[in-house]
C-alpha cells in the first residue's frame, strides 16, 4: 500500500495519446494530468479535437469503426485501454453529459433510476433514495419532487439538462465529462448549470468542453487549449488567460482567430 502522502492526486493521466479517424489524425501526442475535485475546461477552435479528447476518456470513440488510438490513459493505476478493462464499468465511473439535453422518453423518476436499474438495483426504497439524492445533487429536486411520475420531456431545456446530470450522478461516477452542456440553454439556465458545476466539484472531477471562453474563465480551475489536434497549453485558468506562454494561445484568447 502506498502511503497517503505518496499517492497521486491525479485521477487521470494521459500519456502520448494519439487518436486517428482512418488516415486523419485528430489528436497528436497529448500529455495531461488531471487532479481530483477540479474543473478542467477544454477550449479551442472548431475541429481542434476537444470532443475527441473528451470521448477518449470514457472510450466513447470506440464506437466509431475507423478509430485508432495510441498511448495510455491511466485511472487508478490502470490503463483504460487495457484489454482487461470492463468498458461498462468505466462508463459508470466516467459519466457523460451531452450538448443537447437528451432525457429518455420516460418519467423523471425512471430517467434517474435508469442507470442503477441497469446495474441491477431493484429495491424500490433504495431506488427512491438514489433518485432523491441525485436530483438534490443536480439542484432539481425542489422543482420536480411533486411530479416525479411526469414525463421528463415536459421539463424546460435547463431542467432537462439538470435531469441528465442527475441521471449521470445516480450511478455515482468519479469523473463527469461535459460536452458543451450549456450551448443549447438560455442565460439563466446556463448560470444555474455553472453554479451546479461549482457545487459538484466538491465530490467529482469535471472535464468540460466549452466554446465560451468567459465560461471557461468563470468555472474552471485549469484550462487546456487545443489547436489542430495538439494540446498547445494547459495551465491554471487565471494564468492561461492573463499570462499565456504560447503565442497561439494568446492569439486565440484575444480573439485573433477562432
Ligand atoms: N467520427 C468521425 N469521423 C471522422 N473524423 C472525425 C470524426 N469525429 C471528428 N472527426 C474529425 O476529427 C477532428 C477533431 O474533431 P472534434 O469533434 O474532436 O473537434 P472539436 O474541437 O470538438 O470540434 P467542435 O468544437 O466543432 O465540436 C476534426 O477534424 C473532425 O472533422
UniProtKB/TrEMBL annotation:
Gene3D superfamilies linked to this entry: P-loop containing nucleotide triphosphate hydrolases
Subcellular compartments: Cell inner membrane
ABC transporter domain: residues covered: 12-253
Keyword field: ATP-binding, Cell membrane, Membrane, Nucleotide-binding, Phosphate transport, Translocase, Transport
Membrane association type: Peripheral membrane protein
GO molecular function: ATP binding; ATP hydrolysis activity; phosphate transmembrane transporter activity
Record Pfam families: ABC_tran
GO CC annotations on file: plasma membrane
Coiled-coil ranges per UniProt: none
Major localisation: membrane
Record keyword Cell cycle present: no
One annotated GO biological process: phosphate ion transmembrane transport
Reported function: Part of the ABC transporter complex PstSACB involved in phosphate import. Responsible for energy coupling to the transport system.
Annotated protein name in UniProt: Phosphate ABC transporter ATP-binding protein, PhoT family
Amino acid at each position: 500500500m502506498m502511503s497517503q502522502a505518496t499517492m497521486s492526486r491525479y485521477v487521470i493521466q494521459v500519456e502520448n495519446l494519439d487518436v486517428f479517424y482512418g488516415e486523419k489524425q485528430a489528436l497528436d501526442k497529448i500529455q495531461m494530468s488531471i487532479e481530483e475535485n477540479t474543473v478542467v475546461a477544454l477550449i479551442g477552435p472548431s475541429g481542434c479535437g476537444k470532443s475527441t479528447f473528451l470521448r477518449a476518456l470514457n472510450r466513447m470513440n470506440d464506437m466509431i469503426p475507423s478509430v485508432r488510438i495510441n498511448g495510455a490513459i491511466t485511472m487508478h493505476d490502470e490503463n483504460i485501454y487495457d484489454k482487461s478493462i470492463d468498458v461498462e464499468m468505466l462508463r459508470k465511473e466516467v459519466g457523460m453529459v451531452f450538448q443537447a439535453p437528451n432525457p429518455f422518453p420516460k418519467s423523471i423518476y425512471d430517467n434517474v433510476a435508469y442507470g442503477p436499474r441497469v446495474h441491477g438495483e431493484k429495491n424500490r426504497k433504495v431506488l427512491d433514495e438514489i433518485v432523491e439524492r441525485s436530483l438534490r445533487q443536480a439542484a432539481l429536486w425542489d422543482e420536480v419532487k411533486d411530479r416525479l411520475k411526469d414525463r421528463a420531456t415536459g421539463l424546460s431545456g435547463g431542467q432537462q439538462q439538470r435531469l441528465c446530470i442527475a441521471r449521470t450522478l445516480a450511478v455515482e461516477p468519479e469523473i463527469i465529462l461535459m460536452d458543451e452542456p450549456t450551448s443549447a440553454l438560455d442565460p439563466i439556465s446556463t448560470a444555474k448549470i455553472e453554479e451546479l458545476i461549482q457545487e459538484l466539484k466538491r465530490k467529482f472531477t469535471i472535464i468540460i468542453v466549452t466554446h465560451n471562453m468567459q465560461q471557461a474563465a468563470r468555472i474552471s480551475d485549469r484550462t487546456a487549449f487545443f489547436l489542430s489536434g495538439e494540446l498547445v497549453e494547459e495551465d491554471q485558468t487565471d494564468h492561461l488567460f492573463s499570462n499565456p506562454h504560447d503565442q497561439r494561445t494568446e492569439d486565440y484568447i484575444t480573439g485573433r482567430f477562432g
